[in-house]
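User: Hi! I'm working on a homework problem where we have to compare a predicted structure to a textbook description. Could you give me the structure for the chain below?
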Amino acid sequence: MSVFRSIAALLVLGLSSPGLAEPIGFFQLAETRYDSGVPAPEDRLGFGVGERPVRHEQMVSYLTEIAQGSDRITVETIGYTHEHRPILFFVVTSPENQARIDEIRAEHLAQLDPAAAAGNGPAIIWLNYGVHGAEPSGMDAAIPMLYHLAAAEGPEIEQTLRDSVVLITAVFNPDGHSRRASLVEMFGSDIAVTDPAHAQHNWPSARTNHYWFDLNRQWLLQTQPESRAWLTQWHRWKPQVSADFHEMGTDATFYFHPGEPRRLNPLIPDRARTLTQNIARHHIGFLDQEARLYTTEEGFDNFYVGKGSTYPQVNGSLGILFEIGSARGGLIESNHGLVSHADNVRTQFRTGLTTISGALAQRSEIAAYQRQFFADAAASAGRDRTRGYVFSAEGDPARLNLFLDLLDRHDVTVHALARDLRADGRTYRAGQAYIVPMQQPQYVMIRALFDRVTSFEENVFYDVSGWTLPLAYDLEYSALTGNLSAQSLGEVAHPADITFSAPPVSSYGYVLRWSDYYAPRALYRLLDAGIRVRIATETAAIMTSEGLIEFGPGTAFIPLVGQDVSATDIHDLAGRIAAEDGVPVYSATTGSTPGDTPDLGDRNGFRPIERPEILLLFDDGISLYDAGEVWHQLDHRMQIPVTLRRKSEISGLDWSRYTHLVIVGGGNTGFSGGDLERIRDWIRVDGGVLIASRQGAQMAQESFFDSDAEAAEDADESDTAGAARRDYAAMPVDDAEHVIGGAIFAGDLDFSHPIGFGYSDRFVAVHRNTEIVLERPDGDPFAVVVEYGAEPLLSGYASQRRRDEIAGTPAVIAQRLGRGTVVMFADNPNFRATFLGTEKMFLNAIFFGGLVDQPRGDY
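Assistant: Happy to help. Predicted structure tokens:
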């Protein structure tokens, strides 16, 4: 029996919707006794589940109280969101197990080693609650679950707790849930309005976190604090079963894994599906007993390894996805009757219990499967022709360190390269490169991270089909096919802070190289401090206190002459940049350079730039995801302020304030005639820089430059005339045939172009998930910054037709328009904050867009 310390009830006042509230009895199991000392939700919240949204701070208070009063539960804060809300992590098991919980975890991890003896410890079960803010039953189900685990009494619950350790994160996405709760309460009413058109049921921005990231795509990519917090705990425990609770469209019923059998990542063993089906029988037993509608093995795939139900499956766990038709604001009409939030919470809670019971019913089989997974991984690694991967990032230790951090978060062991190594015609230098051996427990995860996959059994994808991360990070990397020499493997490497010493005091000026990932952040700090900066437009050999060094285009030179800031303050800021931004700063000793390289005072070789003032449009047809990725890149990573404005609210803006306008993709990137004309004048007359991507780039090309787009559309229409007859049942697969499934394409980069500054070679990997093809500009052969290769597909799915259409077309265009510049990206260069290779081009457009020149010749 749990021991509970009661505290004063929390009184919560506000609007309610009568008839929606459900007391704890609605969630309690029949024939189960409950400890009356454990307060029910309504005792502390002041309302029953379903009456109104449970705000995050209320959930934290209530669930923390339950945990602190129970000898079955421990709770800790494992991280904080961008808005500094805590993420709670609960460990639930019997009091006896709690007393030796560290020993249980260590024994569980030890028995995963094929060389160790098999263990017989408790089942380790993980429950994900609330990754999407717009799916509240996936959040609120944690309330009856933790209440039940704390308060239920009797032999059955005591046996369950002895045989299991249940790990609960509540909740995954506090910022999104808080946004959703505010929107629902804003339109709350005394009488429940069930009309789906009611404002209370519609809140498009609540799904995501603060920067509008879909956190269910973050298991692999690891760019957000929420995902970093929970994945750390996941790998600390390596659970055997992971359940993920979601919502879908209101008219849907209830879905649970194992999912569509043909859409399974080949890295996932077949045995995982069988064990998941066995657990599913426990869900079916409950659902049939209540005559509920449900579906399984349809619709949802297990291909993209970066989401919450699939990531566990390439890490030796069973991943289970639950999706229920959403009640939105609380009570809503659907094509199968009224859907209530409280009832959805109850279903999610009860299938959480059947997940536990289903796992315990085959406890030994699941433990054996997980152990065998790692044994098979070791055997496969021994047979794999690839023995490991070596990688580096020339001139950019920060980007290299970010990749090391990513591998570390996925529990992948990395070694420093101990001696120079030659592979694929490239020399990897000791001290500047790293090796990932394949022979390690995370062999399958390494395959998921490094493999290039371009052929698929079926071409229907729920999410991206290509995510080869060394390409996304623009790393130089090679597969090693020979046996790894022990002399090549240095110490195990971990991410570390990248920092440099302050440069010696200079009497002439300072030099900041542009190849470093955080150079844009450093450059903005200089400009924001009122320091004048000149940018190299070509390679320059500069004499520094460390000798003669060759610097590439984009290098920033900070002269001491002509500044309004003292030389002492400039040196102090240079020291802070080196230490805090991890960007080396060099002291120039003379303005004279040898040979044909420009002197530091050359007006063409070194050109002045101004501090950017950036306007980012969002909403009203613009993709929130794409806009959020730009916002995150500029604000969070580069510490550059961004003005956010809804697309429909740009009339009346003081356009003279802004130097840059960013328009990303989306379903409607069009503007009214007046707004479009104002943007055109701002570019042509005021010298503004427009940066546009995906559909935004298509709009810019069609609106501001002569285009044959309409003729191309007409040609496409004529091509479809008289199409051969096909069976209706084949429509889903046939429709998807020419959809690009989030693939990675090869681009040829002109790194002499201002948008290409900071790159060391012409190869760049570009993400694509649209079929947009930009037209080659007339009269300006220098405008194409990146062109897709003749055989462009590197990883992921794209039909041969799409490959042929894209081959040789522009991926990035930078074109003058009057006094201003338009930079167009065929796809999203900031995709999920992961394509560090193309992010630099976007940042170059911010700082160097004004350096793009118009050709004067007749081409």
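For your comparison, note the following. Residues 96 and 162 are 8 Å apart (CA to CA). The longest strand covers residues 784-795. Good luck with the assignment!
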